[in-house]
Amino acid sequence: MRHIWLLLIALALGQPVSAQFNEKPILNLQNEDLARFNWGYFLGFNQYDFKFEYKDDLGDILVSKSVGFNVGLIGEMRLNEFFDLRFEPGLFYTRRDLGFPGFTSENEAIREVQSTYINFPLLLKVSTRRLGNFKPFIIGGVGAALNLSSNEDSPDDNSSGTFRMKRQVFNYEIGFGIDFYLEYFKFSPSIRGVFALSDELFRDTDPNSPWTGNIESMKTRGLFINFTFE
Question: Which segments constitute the Outer membrane protein beta-barrel domain (predicted)?
């Protein structure tokens, strides 16, 4: 999967970006970073996982991950030459399949977890000085997310085949990327890691539930590949 993402980045950049690394490139968008406020959007891919902590050593819950997609908007406020404050609300869709130990029936052991997050991160982008037509950066911050597929309000639980999660989760995000100044717009691929700060599990009614009774906490962690256009 890593090779697919790298290939997509290479295809998205294409020939115009290869010219950015010449010794004396023609500078594109020379006034791009001078505006106080800037706007854009992003598209990308994600792969979410769970980190479990258990009360007793009764066997690990297996997580089968898949590739989801991201889409969102960007609002940026320039603080100075090197620091920008960014708000990046976005929609993140993902699916994870959980395999619980101790069951002989697949219907009881497997739970499909489809999540649609609306993410609201507030991020600080720290960039180097511009080098020709590119500029590396690191980015990080905190955010809150709403899980529209949480099933928190469902009266059913795992005993009826319904896996439930909390609707609201808090997380932090950190990553790195490169701004490429193309002829007509700025293109910025980046790799981000996201880590939940709060427990997302909405437990079954039975405190001794074979699905949730042994879970101390369940927190999301994930990897994002974002392609930003500004």
Answer: 30-200
Distance between CA atoms of residues 136 and 99, nearest Å:
40
- Count structural domains, the chain: 1
Query: Digits of tens for pLDDT over the chain (230 positions)?
Result: 555 445 545 544 444 444 444 566 788 888 888 899 999 999 999 999 999 999 998 889 999 999 999 999 999 999 998 999 999 999 999 999 999 998 989 999 999 999 999 999 999 999 999 999 999 999 999 999 999 999 999 999 999 999 999 999 999 999 999 999 999 999 999 999 999 999 999 999 999 999 999 999 999 999 999 999 99
CATH code at 90? 2.40.160.20
Residue 69 is assigned to a structural domain of this protein: yes
Whether residue 8 lies inside any domain: the answer is no
Q: Is 147 helix (H, G, I), strand (E, B) or coil?
A: strand
Please state, in angstroms and rounded to a whole number, the distance separating the CA atoms of residues 213 and 55.
Answer: 9
